[in-house]
C-alpha cells in the first residue's frame, strides 16, 4: 500500500515538473516574441525571498511581478509576495495587475 502511494506521488511530481518546463518555455518564447531580454527561472523556496535573492545574484535592474488582488484582509493574514518584494528588494519593483482586475 505504501509503494502505491509513493508511485502516485512520483507520477504527480513528474507531471508537475513537465508542466513547469512547458510554462517556462512558453514564457521564454513570449519574452522573445516581444523583444524582452531576461531570464525565466523556476526556483524552490519562499517566493518573495527567492525573487529578491535572484534579483541580487543576477544584478537585476528591475523586478516585474504580478498581483492577484487579494484585498487588505486576506493579504494581512496570508501575506503578499509583491508586498514582500516591494519592502525587501534592492532594485526598483514594478507590480502589474491583470487587465481583468481593473475596475471600470
From TrEMBL:
CDD domains: USP_At3g01520-like. Gene3D superfamilies: HUPs. It comes from the Eukaryota. Residues 12-97 form the UspA domain. This is UspA domain-containing protein. It comes from Magallana gigas.
